[in-house]
């Protein structure tokens, strides 16, 4: 009897559903379209709130100073970071729930450490890594600034006194660079409005003292004839070389201090490991003596 009731109920649901599809569908297209638009708008608003919560101005600045490593900006880094954490935790808990093994505390601890170490705040391993990448990117930009200076100098030397415009030179030399290529492109875009402001924009975009010095030199070069421009470039070349040698000397000095700190830290770890082994052997020996 109960079985027949279930069958009749199932048939009734099918009939009602078929009637709804046949008769209600033509009159509900407008309402369905409105509901679909409302749902889409809610999803967009939720996604915008989610992405807005992930954006951090300080992290974006740090990544920009580091040259956007691996092409990651603030939003993409946060999404990848959280996605990796979620996948990691899901794999840990699913593996634990569907097996008879004990809870993998080590994997869970590593996942928590991954989350903590990648928090974008100061004095964390991740922020220290970004600082190192920013310093490396800064050195690369300074190297390209000096290369740009040398290439412009060579162009004036090989021109044999023929007139050259800085706008055409920047267009010609831009493809040879990577780190300062966006800054050169920005200067080219602004050049027709005001060459001086364009070079200031170049210096601000690169963000180094060497770029500001080069911008001031190029302002003087652009305002003079070929012979005077070559004299200006030749006279400032020695200053640029001295500046670059000083930057390299400071880098080597800091690198030596860093290498010493790493070596000293590794030596301390080896000594600490020896002390731990000695303490464990001492405990084993005392336990053996106490038992006998």
The domain tally reads 3
- Alpha-carbon distance between the two ends: 80 Å
Radius of gyration using CA atoms only: 33 Å
Estimated share of beta-strand residues? under 5%
What composes the largest sheet?
Answer: none
In total, the number of strands is 0
Mean pLDDT: 76
* Broad shape: flat
Helix content: over 70%
Structure description:
This protein has 292 residues and is mainly α. The protein folds into 3 domains: 2-54, no CATH class; 61-121; 135-251. The chain has helices at 2-24, 29-54, 57-65, 74-97, 105-117, 125-158, 166-173, 181-191, 195-206, 209-222, 226-291. Residues 1-6 have low confidence and may be disordered.
Task: Please give a quick description of this structure.
This protein is mainly α and 292 residues long. It contains eleven helices and no strands.
């Amino acid at each position: 009897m109960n079985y027949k009731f279930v069958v009749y109920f199932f048939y009734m649901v099918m009939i009602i559903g078929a009637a709804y599809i046949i008769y209600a569908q033509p009159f509900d297209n407008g309402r369905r379209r409105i509901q679909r638009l409302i749902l889409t708008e809610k999803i967009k608003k939720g996604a915008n709130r989610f992405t807005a919560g992930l954006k951090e101005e300080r992290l974006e600045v740090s990544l920009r100073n580091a040259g956007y490593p691996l092409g990651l900006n603030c939003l993409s880094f946060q999404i990848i970071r959280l996605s990796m954490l979620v996948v990691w935790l899901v794999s840990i808990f699913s593996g634990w729930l569907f097996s008879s093994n004990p809870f993998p505390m080590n994997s869970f601890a590593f996942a928590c450490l991954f989350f903590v170490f990648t928090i974008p705040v100061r004095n964390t391993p991740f922020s220290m890594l970004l600082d190192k990448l920013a310093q490396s990117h800064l050195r690369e930009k300074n190297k390209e600034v000096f290369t740009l200076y040398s290439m412009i100098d060579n162009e004036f030397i090989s021109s044999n006194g023929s007139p050259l415009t800085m706008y055409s030179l920047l267009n010609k030399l831009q493809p040879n660079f990577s780190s300062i290529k966006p800054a050169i492109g920005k200067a080219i875009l602004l050049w027709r409005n005001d060459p001086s402001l364009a070079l200031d924009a170049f210096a601000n975009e690169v963000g180094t003292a060497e770029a500001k010095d080069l911008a001031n030199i190029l302002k003087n070069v652009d305002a003079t004839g070929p012979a005077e421009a070559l004299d200006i470039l030749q006279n400032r070349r020695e200053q640029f070389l001295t500046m670059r040698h000083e930057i390299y000397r400071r880098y080597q000095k800091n690198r030596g201090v860093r290498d010493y700190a790493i070596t000293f830290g590794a030596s301390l770890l080896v000594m600490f490991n020896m002390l731990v082994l000695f303490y464990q052997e001492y405990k084993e020996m005392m336990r053996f003596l106490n038992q006998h």
